[in-house]
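Sharing a chain and its predicted structure for anyone who wants a worked example. Both blocks are below, sequence first, tokens second.
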Amino acid sequence: MEVYLTLDQEAKLNRLAMDRGCGTDVLAQEAISHFLEEEARFVEAVNRGEAELERGEYLTHEEVGARVNQMLRSR
């Protein structure tokens, strides 16, 4: 696999790698791993939210506002 970076991206990656004392390939692999993990978490959260909606487990805009107001008053 080849990934093409802009000159700015490549310069930033090189600087960061130098600062951390590792290779740019290591940083790129870490960044891709982090992205994939976050994307999987996001997709799972969306799926959970959709399932909750289907079960009717949600608050209306008005209910959220009332809860926020109640929390602010109790401080």
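Comments welcome. The chain is about 75% helix and 0% strand.
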